[in-house]
Amino acid sequence: MSTCEAGNDFNNAHMGARISSVFVILITSSAGAFLPILSSKYSFIRMPSWLFFGAKYFGTGVIVATAFIHLLEPAADNLGEECLGGTFEDYPWAFGIALMSLFTLFFFELLAFNFIKDKVGAHSHNHFEISSKENELKDEDEEAEHETEQTKKVPDYPDHFRHANSHQDPESKNTPVDLDKETYYGQLVSTLVLEFGIIFHSVFVGLTLAISGEEFQTLYVVIVFHQMFEGLGLGTRIASTEWPMDKRWLPFVLALCYGLTTPISIAIGLGVRNSYAPGSRTALITNGVFDAISAGILIYTGLVELMAHEFLFSDQFKGPDGSKRMMIAFVVVCFGAGVMALLGRWA
């Protein structure tokens, strides 16, 4: 087994630019994350509906491309290094960890599905019992009519859980006023999981930029756009979530956490630039494992929670112009994925 590298490529060049990257990336990544939120119904600023529509689906493409190009591929490189030896030479652990991450996320969504189904079912059962007791003194015709009306009011659970009506543009007039708790918690979990996966990736992006060598200048420019586009993808999803009135502050906290992650990581990287070894055994395994976990999360979130739910189960593409809007959205998703995939050429 060969020995993993004990140093890094840092060459003490461009220190001014390295320090500036902390502030530049703070501004650009925060702008990407905050802009959709500030332009949604949660703020006094208003983005044109067509612009929010484009940003939303561009962000979806960015997230999917990030999963495959910026997470899974680097994870495979790190965990496939010859110096690791042992089990890492015998099995493609990056893909295995991403697969386990994906199925774990799906398992927890199944648990949530069954929990909410039982809860809604129990609520419906109790509702009918109460209605029955209240109508004992009514004649049979009135009772039958009343029960029929009550039956119509019971939500269709599968459509409800798959967010059939919840994926609306914040500018849409059809956005429900009364927030359904199950829908809110489902969207909240999905948003937090997405942020979790992106933030872990952002930590290593910052460390990599801080200690990079001759490629620093190119990497600097690419990461500025990388983090801005990734922030845009995350921000549009945060803005699309139906937040209750007492949680309207949470979208801004989530965007702030994303905006601060990479700059803080760059600052930490500069602080440990003489001791941090990205090619060491510990760093390779840690980076590879977390990238693989994040890849699984973003693959599931991007393909299932975003693409499948938006295109197949949403009401956004119903109506006379639905097919046209769907094709435009698909083209924008492909464009977002293409831009992010292209950035993978350098970072």
Please characterize this protein's 3D structure.
With 347 residues, the protein is mainly alpha-helical. It has one domain. The chain is 72% helix and 0% strand. It contains 11 helices and no strands. The chain is globular and about 60 Å long. The two termini are 28 Å apart.
Largest sheet: none
Strand content: under 5%
Spans of at least 5 consecutive residues whose pLDDT stays below 50 are 130-134, 151-179
In round numbers, the mean pLDDT is: 79
Write down the secondary-structure element order: HHHHHHHHHHH
Characterize the overall form: globular
How many strand segments?
0
The helix count comes to 11
- The residue fraction in helices comes out at over 70%
Number of domains: 1
**CA(first)-CA(last) distance:** 28 Å
Structural class: mainly alpha
* Rg result: 24 Å
How do the strands and helices of this protein lay out in sequence?
Blueprint: H1 15-38, H2 49-79, H3 87-90, H4 93-134, H5 140-153, H6 157-161, H7 181-210, H8 216-240, H9 250-271, H10 281-312, H11 322-343
Protein name: Zinc-regulated transporter 2
Organism: [Candida] jaroonii
